[in-house]
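Quick one: structure tokens for this chain, please?
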Amino acid sequence: MNKKLEIKILAIGDLANSAVVLKKFVKKSNIHVINFRWDTASKLTDIKENVEFFDSLKIKDQLKKILEIKDNYDLVLVQDWSGARLAYLANLNYIIYFVGAALRVPPFIKNPKLEYLKDPLPSLNYFERRFYKKILDDAVACVANADDLFKQLKKFRTKEIHQIGIPIDTTMFNENIKSLERKKEKFTFLSPQRIGLAKGFDIIWEALKLCKSDFDVLQVEWFLGQRTKEEREINANLVKNMPSQVKLIPIIKKEEIPNYYAFADAVIGQMKNGLGASVEREAVYCKKPVVQYADPKIKFEVEGDYINSTFLPHSNNPKDVADVIDNIVLSKEFREKLIDEEYNFVKKVADPEMIAKKWDDLFQKINTKNKINHQNSSNIIVKLRLVNFLIINRLYFKKIKKIFEKLTRKKTE
């Protein structure tokens, strides 16, 4: 490949290894990933793929690191507000790739609310909300990975918005993967997704209680959202009312997930949004049948045509979910027909070569359109943005308060 054609991309933060997978399949771009040292990110990041980690959790230290390496890259790719914040503070050309909840409860909205919660989430102050809206507006492009997120994105931004799916790493997830060495006593489902209402665990639990067949479910002990008292209570109740078939297992390291798919007889996916996500598609590439609610009203664009998902069921009524689970357990013919249909569908919508080409084309277009040298580290814009961020987040106020308290103590001594 002609090295002159390569566009150098710095991916700051990586959810579900999306950037790690993408870097394997792009042909005109060179992607380097630097991730945050969050607990789950460290466990779920594929470290074999030359992923770098920030040495510090402090924003000023992270920004210093970005400023040191920024001149090696043409564009920045971010997937959450932490990464976007750094790219904005450093005054770089960045693309925001929305793949999860970052846009469902955006930080620039007052009292953001999730549809499955009664109470809104904690809200940022007015100046913080303006700061994060500026981060969204300043992005050279925004990309959503799914139809529902793209519709949400269009509410907040109109220029340079795109929809590109998440590629599946077919070098990692395929039918030739070696199975996990673990004892299996009966038909076994794997459920590697996080426990919470957003994934439809209220429906899954009810469905499992309605099932007539005998099986086990290996469920990763990993929870969605613990930000509010309501969320903590919801998760506690889900554990308390866990069906008898469910056996909790620790968080799985990224490199071990394929072995778990190979070990399982089938996989339980999402039952809420009707779209599905990477978990279901990874499992299908491993030739494992998946139970996942597929909303028949949602269509997927493939080369100009629109097709329906072949995942089952087409209703998230617990009884319908239970029927599909029982059919998978009891009928080999049903399992084989289902996985064939799911596999053909996933190959059309999640083929990594196809998705990587879309990203290559977008990187090329955005880089050509925004051919501006990154500002040097002494640029006044960078300093002003950092000071503004520190002030609106009350970090300076806290520091001043500590100094004042220290001086007060000395006077009274």
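The mean pLDDT is 87.
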